[in-house]
Design goal:
The chain is an alpha/beta fold. The chain has three domains: 248 residues, Thiamin diphosphate (ThDP)-binding fold, Pyr/PP domains (Rossmann fold, 3-Layer(aba) Sandwich); 155 residues, 3-Layer(aba) Sandwich (Rossmann fold), CATH 3.40.50; 126 residues, Rossmann fold (3-Layer(aba) Sandwich). The protein is 40% helix and 16% strand. The protein has 25 helices and 17 strands. The chain is globular and about 100 Å long. The termini are far apart.
Length: 617
Amino acid sequence: MNNSILSTIKSPKDIKSLSDKQLVLLCEEIRKKIIDTVSVNGGHLSPNLGVVELTVMLHYIFDCPDDSIVWDVGHQCYTHKMLTGRYSNIHTIRTENGLSGFPKRSESDYDAFNAGHSSTSISAAYGIAQAKQLMNDNSHTIAVIGDGSLTGGLAYEGLNNAGRFKKNFIVILNDNKMSISKNVGAMAKYLTSIRVKPSYLRIKNRVENILTKTPIIGSPIKKALKRSKSRVKHIIYKDTLFDQLGYRYYGPVDGHDIESLRNALLAAKSTKGPVLLHVVTKKGKGCQYAESDSASFHGIGQFDVDTGEPISSKTDFSSVFGEGLCRIASNDKRVCGVTAAMRTGTGLMEFSQKFKDRFFDVGIAEEHAVTFSCGMASKGMIPVFAVYSTFLQRGYDQLLHDAAMQKLHMVVAVDRAGIVGEDGETHQGVFDVSMLNSIPNTTIFSPCYFDEMKQSLDTAIYGCDSLVAIRYPRGGETERPEDLSVSSMNYDIYGDRDADKLLITYGRLFSNAVKAYEKLKKDGESICILKLCKIKPIDKNAIEFAKKFSKIHFFEEGILAGGIGETLDYELTKIGYIGLYKVTAIEDRFIQHSSVASALIKNELDADSMYRIMKND
């Protein structure tokens, strides 16, 4: 396919003159381009394939950027980017200095609001709509939110608040029966009940069409029925939750049918006040392997276009964690697994199958997950909440107020800790240490290797009595020196104990530290490495050991402010350390999308930077 239509689209205006047949062909071309691009760059395949027709028709009906589209999470914006002047650069998506995999206001006027985490779209869109009203701007504001995001509490706060709005405000519920993992809970069942019973809208439309065509008496009867609409509607269909919140409900609509989408979007556009348009789509649409296993292809690395097989499939920390938790749970019925709609991504799939009664997927609701876990812990269970670092940020208050303050024993498995790379600033796991470091009654482990991960998990469950976090990076192990033997879950010493210089680090940066050590050794330089595994609280013996070195460099793959490097500086000062102490960490900024290796170099956390800093000081 030569993308004969897609390549001519320079802005949304170019699609408005296309026939339905051409629109269908355009959607086919877009799908092909998405599959080809993600197979090379990695990214979110299933979500993007599911919203192709919806995105095309949104730009066909509305006039962006005057009309504002706010994408929830934003991982389904690839079609949107191609239609808004970025098709020629779509091959750069998720690469350094290329297009972001998420909406970014700095990238295009068509991106109305930055996204990356779920359930934010309705609140943000309502804020935009209110601002427009204050400026006498009558353009439309549209929030596109997936059904999975409706498991997040923020979505309901936004829905509730915006239900009283009197201007042009549309919420499009992209109902694909999936979030990342299969949807669970009351909302999933409620949406299913709406999908399977659209009889009210069919009857209503038929009656209105007949009355409109009936001369003389048709119009008065139609008006009378409209006045009694709520009573008739309640008898035939019952009110939806959205009606009760103040929205005019339209749907369900086939999200892959051009004509149905056109009619529904035009109806929504012509309605004053808040509208909830319910669109049913299929995640992974048009790609057989993505349709059959949409969870695995939600976010994926490079893969073979023909088969869908990953280019690289190595053992990673997530799977090691999942295996370890299964091992422990098989011998201890108190151990439970908790996830926020991420059973696949966090390695809990096997656990969910083996221990169904002790596995809890709470939906995209991290705050609830923490407090829910605390409730279980208060009755003697041992909940283990597996969550990406960047999503754990939402649960700060619950970690502090519900877990640590009550000294309840729960374990947080912090996946994707540290720099994650191509997903960019919204997904970099560089804030969890500073966040958790500020909470009393908290223990943090940061293992570097798989065996340390297993030992950390055992210690967290059986050797601690309050809030415990185990943080580990995306992907697999880094290089390990043959002469390293892990002797303690607190800290280990590697290199020349009698050296003048000490390099301190934790997590996967230890591998870079060893490479720097070996280069320095070849130059005749001598250093010692203090490798921390338990980073909060820091072992007092490790602090005493560090005190004897005249020069100390701490390298940290996390934000500088409030990090472990700053904490150790304070602890050393308390016991009278007067030598040179420097911390290399991530300064006060967000990290843009690039490869992990490139981001480490830019932040002077790679082996060559460590070598240079240690040698020159």
